Amino acid sequence: MSQQYIWEVKAKNTPLLKKKCSHCNSDRFYCSDKFRLNAQKKNIDIWLIYRCVQCKNTFNMTIFSRVRTESISKTLFIKFSENNTETAWEYAFSLETRRKNNVEYDAESVEYDIQHPTLDDILNSGYEILPVTLKSPFDFSLKVYSVIRICLGLSVSKLNQLIEADALSFQGKSIQKSHRIKDGGIVYIDIEKFRNICFENG
């Protein structure tokens, strides 16, 4: 039983920013995946460029402000210069960056896919208590409750039954609806209880 069971959440887009546009009546901005760099003597400013979803008016989200150029690693500087998409996404999802800029994002605007083993694979894993590792490189407040429903194909009532019977747990604790996924978190499935509740009891 050396196989690792993984539920991998893959974001399909970056979250929209909740921000009033000064040029139109829109209140959402999307990430352009592009950076703006402005060097002054030995200092540099770096922004991630956002655009209004309606009129394309720009908003520059600060990444670095008046920092010494040599304080940024050469590798990272090249990524900024080349508008590296992966780097743009890291900052677009960054809670620290949003806090620094005093902006909030629209978590519900993020679409995603989840790659996961089939229910048959899980039920026939050979485990009594099966650990499933969550992988999600970006944080967009997705709830553990929602991921479990999708990956196990459960109704709300059936999922609640499983939680009440301790057939499912997260990080060794009873699952709460407020629990949000985190990269490397583990959901535990009691296979026998799962079978009894989902199949023998209809």
UniProtKB/TrEMBL annotation:
Pfam families linked: DUF1062
Family annotation (InterPro entries): DUF1062 (IPR009412)
Domain of life assignment: Bacteria
Name this protein carries in UniProt: DUF1062 domain-containing protein
Provenance organism: Chryseobacterium rhizosphaerae
